[in-house]
């Protein structure tokens, strides 16, 4: 039997994944003691069962990580047959190298702790780890990074009749996601590029496309404060873009980001349910389920 469970972070997404897999959803009891410690209990039998733990790490990463470590170790101790970890949003992935002397590389630390706690596979979705070339540097268990860009592009294309559209990444790091979304829609893509002319002058513009009169879909992995997207909207408007839409995998949306993005000129903003939000209209449950079905 396959069981799908979660801590307090992703219960509905875990339930949805279970429906996609025709698996059984296993509820957990999560509570906190007066001193702040976390209590976890599986409300069902897990011995000799395959268990998929779906736990997003957005917004309260430290609390959700402790829940995850307790769940994984308990499943290992309770003799689960196989344990698979799905991190719809992988917190701490942005610190993927040592930028300053003495820094902790949090991506490596968290990955190794997940493996040590008992997971045999890790699945992430559009993880923000641009500088990692070899995943063996992170963990010895398989780590698969899935993408929601195809589903986001389909959703936006179905919702809006786009005129001569192009897909844009707001910076060079988002170029790969722009390509995936553009390939889905069979349209052009580009990424914004910074050119420094002197100590005080920096120009930001598309690298190759003329966007005058065209509809544009901006795609990125994360919208946190929204500053990157707002800057991209301003650049695209100055380059003649007509209608501007925005899609992201992880809508963290802190510091009133959504209102500020609409105020900057976006006509629509959509995200996925890796992070529950007001714009989480696209579910990653089918993406997760399809990847797990391919495991042997």
- The CATH class of the largest domain, by name, is Alpha Beta
Average residue-wise pLDDT: 92
Q: Any idea what the shape is? A: elongated
Q: Strand order, biggest sheet? A: 11-10-9-12-13-14-15
Uncertain segments: none
In CATH, the topology of the largest domain is named Rossmann fold
Give the end-to-end Cα distance, rounded to a whole number of Å. Answer: 15 Å
Question: Can you describe this structure?
Answer:
The protein has a seven-stranded mixed β-sheet, with helices on both faces. A six-stranded parallel β-sheet has the order 2-1-5-6-7-8, with helices on both faces. It is an alpha/beta fold and 296 residues long. It has two domains: 2-147 and 284-293, Rossmann fold (3-Layer(aba) Sandwich); 149-273, 3-Layer(aba) Sandwich (Rossmann fold). The mean pLDDT is 92. The protein is elongated, with a radius of gyration of 20 Å. It is built from eight helices and 15 strands.
